[in-house]
Amino acid sequence: MLRGLLWFSAFLTVAVLVIIVGYIFYKGFRLINFDFIFGDYSPVGHGGIWPMIVTTIYTIVISLLIATPIGILSAVYLQEYAKQGRLVRMIRFATESLTGIPSIIYGLFGAVFFVTTLKLGMSIIAASLTLTIIVLPVIIRTTEEALKTVPPAYREGSLALGTTKLQTLYKVILPSAMPGILSGIILSMGRIVGESAAIFLTAGTVAAMPDSIFSSARTLTVHSYLVTQESGDIELAAAVGIVLIVIILVLNLSATFISKKLNKADY
Amino acid sequence: MPSPLSEKQIVDIGKSNKRKYILEKFSARLFLFCALLSVISLLLIIGFVFYKGAHPFIAEGYSFIDFIFGMDWVPSEGKFGIFPMIVASIFATFGALIIGVPIGLFTAIFLAEIAPKTIAKLISPAVQLLAGIPSVLYGVFGLAIIVPFLQNNLGLAKGQSLLAVIIVLAIMMLPTIVTVAETAIRAVPKTYREGSLALGASQIGTIFKVVVPAAKSGIMAAIVLGLGRAIGETMAVILVAGNSLILPTSLTDSVRPLTTNIALEMGYAFGTHQEMLFATGIVLFSFILLLNFVLAKIGSKGGK
């Protein structure tokens, strides 16, 4: 009986997920062509989605440019420098809490802090800064995990040769932890690509090629949401969905590939 | 005999050592500062959201009780009651848990314990991939398939309903629950299973009496993550909720959970209205803290 239930649940899960992805592809694939992906947006017809792709790339690049160094260095502090104590517990508590905050709250914060208080306006930069905080805990956690896998003998060997702690860090520890760190960064790209509510409240919804990072613009997810909500254009939303799914797929595959490949090369 | 270092060389070494020490000290400070940025961000988020959200109750004479238990949300008349939204959020989240958790857990158990290796190797990565799919797409699917399905089969005037929200959220939390719970179950040491089987327990008995209890904390973490995803989800919910401002009395009522209220009105709200949306955010925030706390308690109790 129970065994049957287990088989049935697994079947149900797989069936539902296959149906969703299948439906998105089935509904949207007719729209996918060169002009759709690389064409400029127009309100008539289905319009191109190049502006949304560019906006998505902007948000990824800017937020990772800020979040990656901060995240890696935080993890280095927590794993390599800090003495366990109140301060470390506080920092860990903060990163864990940040993970649990829903994106709409980040959106509210971004809207009042970056958009209004810092006077950035609804813009790509305001959204990217908000996203920076969202992915920061992801990068910190994955980097910490990667640092944990570096054998203590590496550190001891390097320090015994008379290097300073800093030299050991960037010549020995960080290179060995690199695969883990890289896949963490790639996973946060996925998180940024999939984010919608926080971006909706901080970058706005302007459907045009952004002039600069200070313009309001819409990302792929927001576009997919808006065309569904405003015009009920499921076909277009699904076509954007295909692009999103392919991006996520590529990111996931490269994360797996990198961690496997580099691990082999290293040891 | 090697020539001793000249005085000039000794001074050089001293200088470069000094530079190294300064660099060491500076970098340690820099790393600490980076680590503190998470704390600062958290404080800023809490500070700004609470400052904005508390303002109408402290400075403008609105009653917090009326806000929580008020039935009417009419910003143009200064009426801000979010009770229907609170109820909608709770129903939607628990409904999704009731459907999503058993199916997700059973799937995880299946993949980790029962499935033939080839099948598990095929399904696990696919489910992991699905955990990364943007939640908006679940909403698009919900609006295109689930909403019309409910509308036609239940004879509703409008398919956008609490039930639609529950189904979409349950589907959305599945990959998260399956992935995390599967990892937890796989981490249970093999000897536990062998010991139980050696005592004559059946495979199913071993799974449910030995393996699952041993993986309890990981399974709890899976549920908490799924729950967090469900209660905080916004854009997918807007598409299928219908967003009516009524107190939901049945599964087929159109609802407006807390998150969607914020996203729908933030675009044009200003003044007190906007501050009330931040107050809605505070309520949502408190819910998440409370639920995490409760589940952590349950998890630690069960562990003993």
Describe this structure in words.
The complex is a heterodimer of chains A (267) and B (304). Chain A is mostly helical and 267 residues long. Helix content of chain A is 79%, strand content 0%. Chain A is built from eleven helices and no strands. Chain A is globular and about 70 Å long. The model of chain A has no long low-confidence stretch (mean pLDDT 89). Chain B is mainly alpha-helical and 304 residues long. Chain B folds into two domains: 7-61; 73-303, MetI-like (MetI-like fold). Chain B has helices spanning 7-59, 64-69, 83-114, 117-131, 135-153, 162-186, 190-198, 203-214, 216-232, 235-241, 258-265, 271-303, and strands at 73-74, 79-80. Chain B has a two-stranded antiparallel sheet. Classes of the chains: A mainly alpha (267), B mainly alpha (304). At the A-B interface, helix 1, helix 3, helix 4, helix 5 and helix 6 of A face helix 1, helix 3, helix 4, helix 5 and helix 6 of B. Chain B: Residues 86-295 form the ABC transmembrane type-1 domain. Chain B: This is Phosphate transport system permease protein. Chain B: The chain crosses the membrane at residues 30-51, 82-115, 127-150, 162-185, 219-241, 276-295. Chain B: Part of the binding-protein-dependent transport system for phosphate; probably responsible for the translocation of the substrate across the membrane.
